[in-house]
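Sample pair:
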Amino acid sequence: MTSLSLLLWIVSGIVLQLAIFLGIGFWRHWLDYHALRSRAAELGLPAMQNVSSGAEEIAAAAWLGFRTFRIDRKVVEDAAQSICSFYLMPEDGQPLPPFLPGQFLTFRLEIPTATGGSEQIVRCYSLSDAPRPDCYRISIKRVPPPKGRHVPPGRSSTFFHDQVTAGSPLQVRAPAGHFHIDRSDTPAVLIAGGIGITPMLSMLNWCLAEQPGREIWLFYGARNGGELVMKSHLEALAAAHPNFHLRLCFSDPLPEDMARENVTGHDYLHRGRINVNLLRMQLPLKPYHFYICGPTPMLESLVPALDDWGVPDAHIHFEAFGPSSIKRRQPATAAVAASQDTGTIETGIVVTFAKSGKQLPWQPTAGNLLAFAESHGIAVDSGCRAGSCGSCQTTIRAGEVTYRQPPDYDPEPGTCLLCSCTPKTDVTLEA
């Protein structure tokens, strides 16, 4: 055997060993991959998908400005007769564009005054049903005056309950809002407190109609059974869809609520408020997305608790109603980066409210200029608090503001939407 032949044999042996090593490594990775896929299927974990929200297409189909609708029918939805649903049909008879489940409608209302005239106000109400081409539905709770305070009841809710009837005309802007469920098959947990159930009904009805195999949980909190909205509808859905899990939570149950639980043995009735301990006991270990809507105290409790539980920030979606804004937790580095991105790092920026006569150092922790104004006792008209209705549009006398997310409503030149912006420089506002 020559030296050349020996060298070729050695090289061939090395190449063969390398091929065997790579083949074994590839086979092991292949087995691991299939094991992970099998485990994911057993746990019901969704595969990663490139799912479009459809927001661009839906926004393009919406109408501009206000459109005339008429009330087709009005339905009382709870035993306490404090919540009514209103079915709205377009006066022009044209098909309605779809919307993203969870969005709201903006209304321009002519409210009668004590002097015999009327006053125009703008209010937003969540859509409470899945998209339909012929009508929209909203569900509104009558807001009573606060106990022990000489404050009138809610003007717009009282107007709807007492004066809006079948045939009444209403001026309506197209559906809008950034709070909506995604279109993937990711398992979802819907959490509603009180009238916060309305956008959840829209999400739930859409999911069960369009994605019947998607795992959906609904935790619905109320004081008692008399305040539940569409209870029979929810129970029927839970009975018809094995992937839908209903949990009703009563903070102050009536005797008949608990008596029914004892007689029927329903496992979806729970005494107490919704909290993270209940979620941990009820939910399997899966990468859920959480959608929350309710009063501010509920969100102030739940959102940080979910964060402490280890739920990723990107999996927590919420919409608050009331005067306060819910602030997400951020690492110190992220908070500084966000401040730098929006020009709101603490560099001596001053906000001047001209009408109120207040000059205040900007506090980045306020979140937006509307919350900042309210925290200092400055009253500002507001509606959606999400940059969609234009109610908080305010003239900028001097300075600049910046938006972290472009608003749906296009403010007039020289104005800003306080609910969606922060100061970029010293700024003087007409408020």
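The first strand starts at residue 66 and ends at 76.
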